[in-house]
Amino acid sequence: MVKAGKPRSRRAPRRWLWRLAGLVALFGLAFAGWLWWDMREWRPDPALYPEQGAMVPAGGAQVKFETLKAVGAEFVYLPLATSPGLDSPGGFADRFVRARTAGLQVGVLLMFDPCLGADAQSGMFAQMVPRDARLLPPAIGLEQLADTCDPKVSDAAVESELMTLINQIELHAGKPVILKLSPAFQNRHKTATTLARDLWLARDRARPDYAGRPWLLWSANSARVTEASEEPVEWVVVQK
Question: Can you give the pTM of this predicted structure?
């Protein structure tokens, strides 16, 4: 007589599913770790983008501009702080002089504050930034939305003040501005469509397309680690 075999446990397939899910999760974590490590020092191929540079972090972080040039930067954008103390060591004025001494082309980035009038912002720019044809085109950073302004500021007022600020900065600099445009600001104000200025877009590793038209500058790595700075720098390339 043939004895009936023991019924196969239904738990066995579940064990394999759990093991497979664990392997997939482990692979995902390993890949994410590799990608994070690789991005620390990654920059686009210089053969594709011969002209590369950086935007240094805001604040008083120490920056070695000679080292920044040695790791591949030809130009640097300096963020213009809105707080006092700009002439302190590590501040804007100090960085401006040292970047030029290191042989880097220098540009200035002014972060647009939708809660503050154009006159105050352009006045600070004119006070800190000299009229100098050797400077790169000035850039205006468009990230902050007016949602937290008190008193409230309408979108129409934001767009009007921005246009005024652009005209004032261009009058001082003698050249058109570049708009450093974030996805959130573009979604709200459609700036790339309404303002005919060169664009500076940002997306780590992947070419940005959220503006719907070509860009001039691309922040390809928002946190490149180098020996040039205590903090990561934003690595920027030029599209010819």
Answer: 0.84
Largest pairwise CA distance in the chain: 103
Structural contact between residues 189 and 25, judged by C-beta atoms closer than 8 angstroms: no
3-state secondary structure the chain: CCCCCCCCCCHHHHHHHHHHHHHHHHHHHHHHHHHHHHHHHCCCCCCCCCCEEEECCCCCCCECHHHHHHCCCCEEEEEECCCCCCCCCCCHHHHHHHHHHCCCEEEEEEECCCCCCHHHHHHHHHHHCCCCCCCCCCEEEECCCHHHCCCCCCHHHHHHHHHHHHHHHHHHHCCCCEEEECHHHHHHHCHHHHCCCEEEEECCCCCCCCCCCCCCEEEEEEEECCCCECCCEEEEEECC
Share of the chain above pLDDT 70, in %: 81
Judge whether residue 22 has pLDDT over 90. no
Tell me if 203 sits within 8 A of 185, measured CB to CB: no
Q: How far is CA 140 from the centre of its chain?
A: 12
Q: Which residues contact 237 (CB under 8 A, 6 or more apart)?
A: 43, 44, 49, 51, 52, 53, 217, 218, 220
Q: Please state, in angstroms and as integers, the Cα–Cα distance from residue 205 to each residue in 5, 16, 34, 106, 114, following that order.
A: 58, 36, 14, 24, 29
Phi, psi of 126 (to 5 degrees): -65, -35
pLDDT computed for residue 9 by the predictor: 54
Q: Cα(231)–Cα(239) distance, rounded to whole angstroms? A: 26
Percentage with pLDDT > 90 across the chain: 76
